[in-house]
Design goal:
The relative contact order is 0.14. The chain has 3 domains: about 130 residues, Immunoglobulin-like (Sandwich); about 80 residues, Sandwich (Immunoglobulin-like), CATH 2.60.40.10; about 160 residues, Immunoglobulin-like. By secondary structure, it is mostly beta strands. A hairpin with a 3-residue loop joins strand 6 and strand 7.
């Protein structure tokens, strides 16, 4: 394959694909299999060559159920070849382009256990189906101590966020919440005659128990007050983390309606700052002064951050046995490609849009041609896409 510099964009032959510029969409053309022409940006042309017939390869497929644990699970293939893929929303996965040999399949998904933990399959002149797994949701705990025991003993501790719960600290000030799924939570202690530092703490459960979420209780020396508000709309407000800084620091998590509050606050000036993945906030933060009264209506508006996609197009194969195409993606140039289409892009369609890209990431795409038996060609040339 050779690269020819085209000094005049758009001046190539009439059979070249036309590059249409759209805001926030990168159009990439992938040359595959037979004589193909790739328009890369607006200035480069790559000429291809006749490829030999696709080698005989096969596939391994299966399902991870229930879908709650299968959706988004990472499935790793090892043995005669190595690869990784991600199960679709139904928990289905597939590995294609495999030669005869013995393979081991291992699923993983944070917060879930799998039965069996691995499966071994032998490809011997045919596709292998039914390599299925069952998931069970794992649960974890959040625990800590409120000291000294005089203020911790009998204190009420409230959990909010992904799950809500309440518990009472024991005689030594210890508390525990169990049976928690992965997620973000806020823990807030309260007790008559005491203030607590910090007022509340945010905690993320991510595949392990969380310990040492501790508080200090101090006898009240005067009245305390609160700051409260709401984040709208609820799509961006629900489950948002809200941070308080100033004379004391604290974090909390909004409820399903986007409401939040900080209690037990002395007079002073505080800053309230919301965050939630995939959203920006107006205003970004607010300064609030408590002067012997509760402060309400410290509200924010959440706006969805710009989403990106990558539109791919390629030149159709003229091989009569080709029935469709597969699209692969990697964050490493030249290796570790993962299949991103759940089923082949059926001919004569020669386009695919990847809507699962993440901001500030560079992706590398290749395609393959497949026939009705599942036999798959070698990878095409690689094309990068930079997501801002």
């Amino acid at each position: 394959m050779r690269f020819e510099q085209n000094k005049h964009a758009g001046s190539a032959g009439a059979d070249l694909p036309v590059l249409v510029s759209r805001a926030r969409r990168a159009l990439l053309c992938v040359a595959m299999l037979l004589p193909a022409v790739l328009v890369w940006g607006c200035s480069g042309v790559v000429s291809g060559y006749n490829s030999p017939p696709p080698p005989q390869t096969y596939s391994l497929t299966g399902t991870i159920s229930p879908a709650a644990g299968g959706n988004g699970a990472t499935v790793t293939l090892s043995g005669a070849a190595s690869a990784t893929t991600t199960a679709n929303s139904s928990g289905s996965y597939s590995f294609t382009g495999l030669a005869n040999g013995t393979y081991t399949i291992t699923p993983s998904h944070m917060g879930y256990a799998f039965n069996p933990t691995t499966l071994t399959a032998t490809v011997n002149g045919a596709n292998v189906t039914g390599m299925n797994f069952t998931t069970t949701a794992q649960t974890f705990s959040v625990s800590g101590t409120i000291s000294p025991a005089a203020g911790g003993s009998g204190a009420m501790v409230t959990l909010s966020g992904t799950t809500t719960a309440m518990t009472t600290a024991d005689g030594a000030g210890n508390y525990t919440f169990t049976g928690l799924a992965n997620g973000t939570y806020a823990v807030t202690p309260s007790g008559a005659g005491y203030t607590f530092n910090p007022i509340s703490q945010a905690v993320t459960v991510n595949g392990a128990n969380v310990t040492g979420l501790n508080f200090t209780a101090t006898p009240q020396g005067g009245p305390t007050f609160s700051i409260s508000g709401a984040i709208t709309p609820t799509a961006g407000g629900s489950g948002a983390t809200v941070t308080l800084s100033g004379p004391v620091g604290a974090t909390t998590v909004t409820n399903t309606s986007g409401n939040y509050s900080f209690t037990g606050l002395a007079n002073g000036t505080y800053t309230v700052t919301p965050t939630n993945t995939g959203y920006s906030f107006t205003p970004a933060s607010q300064n609030v002064t408590i002067n012997a009264t509760n402060v309400t209506g410290v509200n924010f508006t959440a706006t969805v951050q710009l989403a990106h996609s990558v539109a791919l197009a390629w030149t159709a194969s003229t091989t009569s046995t080709v029935t469709g195409y597969n699209v692969y993606r990697s964050t490493l140039s030249g290796s570790s490609y993962t299949l991103i289409n759940s089923s082949p892009v059926l001919a004569p369609v020669v386009t695919y849009t990847d809507t699962t890209v993440q901001n500030a990431t560079t992706y590398y795409y290749v395609t393959t041609a497949v026939d009705a038996s599942g036999a798959e060609s070698v990878y095409s040339n690689e094309v990068p896409a930079v997501i801002p």
